[in-house]
């Protein structure tokens, strides 16, 4: 029996709706497998700015540090997107959280559910059997380098920066994962242009002999973005920087048919954070139609990675599979052939899922 | 009758093979339409390093400046990719050429030939009717910012930098193109994180009222990379920075089924450069199997944009269409149903094309 304290951080937009279902699933697992999970909740992003003026209030950070794992929603608000001059922004909360908690490794598994093979815009015969695990570096790169306005505001720069130890620690995680899978690692950079990418490539090349069983392939980000569509099965374990990882994993979400199905784990020095890769989606917020499965699968990752509860994690994945096999869909993964009575809202999809747990 | 001087710059890898066909097509056009084209040739990239030690020899630059337009091949060599510490690199020649000639606007049309609808890994029903024109900024961004090694070589940075005038001049080209098409412009940035992107977005927002007939949409690069697969028809005219444009246009090449079909124009202050978006492709160099159609379509762009010879340009596109309709394919655009005798090498494809001109 595990005794664990989980912090729920719904954040903005559909974050609240989907983490509600994620928490229900965790609750059911605790009950079924005889664990004791306690919960707390905290603010981040736009809702935190509204309440406290700070996108990552001190109270939230304290609660995060005191938790065994964090189930996270989303962060962002259109208000700031259209106002490039806003000084305080929801995303600052997210980025500061990653830095403060030392969450340098973002794992994004792209796993296809057979039932959804047709939901993708990519041909099913290209996708079949595709299974990718991305390692996106999360606390370095142009996300955290110095940025500034110059020339009376007429010039702006950001600094894309990496140190060898930052590349090494994420690369080791990726090499180790490759060992447990098909023993292939693709590293993505832009070493034909960028100095930070040449440093990245040097570190990977230097580590490779320590993992002689792993075959390493280097790709430029432009080629990788192209190959991911052309031949997704060529990808297995992929390691890349913060910015290229942001782009490549969002692109890869289309392999899975919808962002609504993809979970991610951010881990590093302390508490892990588990979140959907979809964003706050304000266009559908409050309508009760958001797909909760990415949050549910985030809960599954949480149990597996932070608590080592493999069977529990697999029970959740099996339940998701069962619900899909029974034909249930949220709007984002439905198609023209889905019968109307099988298209469920957020809560109804959660309820179906619980029936299968 | 036009009298023009064209510089052929084959560069590395398959560059030589494909520009040979591109030049044959230009020759035939001159003959057919009664123009007088004269030619010269110059070195760039790896071949220039081998011959002179410099990836962009002074002699090449002089010839470029003296030409009315440039038909370009490709640049790059695997030797340097695996040696992150190489000081002289083929790509430096390409980047310096762009800067020296002031080629700040890179136009990449993604046009589908009906015959190749099935060649893409994306479902034909998602693609049908898709027609995108990218404007990639080409002389700024992290490609030309300061870069350096620090801490005894243990840290490296690159500077992502934009000034307002750089954004404005490419944006105006894109706005004007949008006017002649569906009056929709998508601008892609990462303004939720990057200061240079916030400056980018500010400039676009400030220009928008001057083009009241054009509807502007802003997307983050991660979302754009995802939407391009999910719903490519949502894209019409797209404007973005150098790095994001590099990634997005390579990704978009998969819409057209193969990079082997895509041409690009780099224009700005002086002579325009016309080149395939595929690279040097050393894996197939010298085998005579490279697809020459991107070079041929680059020649078509050259005639249209640099010389204003619209009918001549359209004649080339019609010939490409005819050859595809007749069932001829190079290896990269063939599929399992293509009869063996319809799969042509580079020169044979060129010969078929000339028959149709
Ligand atoms: C919201 C944004 C700052 C964030 C990022 O770019 O990291 C998001 O896109 C993500 O991938 O988690
Ligand atoms: C070869 C490389 C430097 C170049 C770039 O990144 O600009 C290429 O990918 C391109 O798109 O023309």
UniProtKB/TrEMBL annotation, chains A, B:
Primary location group: cytoplasm
Keyword entries, A-Z: Amino-acid biosynthesis, Branched-chain amino acid biosynthesis, Cytoplasm, Leucine biosynthesis, Magnesium, Manganese, Metal-binding, NAD, Oxidoreductase
EC category name: oxidoreductase
InterPro entries: IsoCit/isopropylmalate_DH_CS, IsoPropMal-DH-like_dom, Isopropylmalate_DH
Requisite cofactors: Mn(2+); Mg(2+)
Short name of one Pfam family: Iso_dh
Positions contributing to Mg(2+) binding: 222, 246, 250
Catalytic activity reported: (2R,3S)-3-isopropylmalate + NAD(+) = 4-methyl-2-oxopentanoate + CO2 + NADH
Cofactor info, note text: Binds 1 Mg(2+) or Mn(2+) ion per subunit.
MF (Gene Ontology): 3-isopropylmalate dehydrogenase activity
Pathway noted in the entry: Amino-acid biosynthesis; L-leucine biosynthesis; L-leucine from 3-methyl-2-oxobutanoate: step 3/4
Residue(s) at site: Important for catalysis: 143, 190
Cell compartments where the protein resides: Cytoplasm
Sites where the protein binds substrate: 98, 108, 136, 222
Domain Isopropylmalate dehydrogenase-like: 5-353
Enzyme Commission identifier(s): 1.1.1.85
UniProt xrefs under NCBIfam families: leuB (TIGR00169)
Functional note: Catalyzes the oxidation of 3-carboxy-2-hydroxy-4-methylpentanoate (3-isopropylmalate) to 3-carboxy-4-methyl-2-oxopentanoate. The product decarboxylates to 4-methyl-2 oxopentanoate.
Family according to the record: Belongs to the isocitrate and isopropylmalate dehydrogenases family. LeuB type 1 subfamily.
Assembly behavior: Homodimer.
Name assigned to this protein: 3-isopropylmalate dehydrogenase
């Amino acid at each position: 029996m595990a005794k664990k304290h989980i912090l729920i951080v719904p954040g903005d937009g559909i974050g609240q709706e989907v983490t509600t279902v994620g928490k229900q699933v965790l609750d059911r697992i605790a009950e079924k497998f005889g664990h004791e999970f306690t919960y707390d909740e905290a603010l981040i992003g736009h809702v935190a700015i509204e309440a406290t003026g700070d996108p990552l209030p001190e109270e939230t950070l304290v609660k995060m540090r005191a938790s065994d794992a964090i189930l996270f929603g989303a962060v962002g608000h259109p208000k700031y997107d259209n106002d490039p001059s806003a000084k305080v922004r929801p995303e600052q909360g997210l980025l500061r959280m990653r830095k403060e908690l030392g969450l340098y490794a973002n794992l994004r598994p792209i796993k296809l559910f057979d039932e959804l093979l047709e939901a993708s815009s990519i041909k099913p015969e290209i996708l079949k059997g595709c299974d990718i695990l991305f390692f996106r570096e999360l606390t370095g790169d142009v996300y955290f380098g110095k940025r500034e306005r110059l020339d009376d505001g007429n010039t702006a720069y950001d600094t894309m920066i990496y140190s060898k130890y930052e590349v090494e620690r994420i690369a080791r995680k990726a090499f180790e994962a490759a060992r447990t899978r098909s023993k292939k690692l693709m590293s993505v950079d832009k070493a034909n242009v960028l100095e930070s990418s040449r440093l990245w490539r040097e570190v990977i090349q230097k580590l490779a002999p320590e993992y002689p069983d792993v075959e390493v392939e280097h790709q430029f980000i432009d080629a990788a973005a192209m190959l991911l569509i052309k031949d997704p099965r060529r990808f297995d374990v992929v390691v890349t920087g913060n910015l290229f990882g942001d782009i490549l994993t969002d692109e890869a979400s289309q392999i899975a048919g919808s962002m609504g199905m993809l979970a991610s784990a951010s881990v590093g020095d302390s508490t892990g954070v588990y979140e959907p890769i979809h964003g706050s989606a304000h266009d559908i917020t409050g309508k009760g139609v958001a797909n909760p499965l990415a949050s549910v699968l985030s809960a599954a990752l949480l149990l597996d990675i932070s608590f080592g509860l493999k069977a529990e994690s697999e029970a959740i994945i099996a339940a998701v599979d069962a619900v899909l096999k029974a034909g249930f869909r949220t709007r984002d993964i439905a198609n023209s052939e889905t019968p109307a009575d099988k298209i469920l809202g957020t809560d109804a999809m959660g309820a179906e899922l619980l029936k299968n747990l």
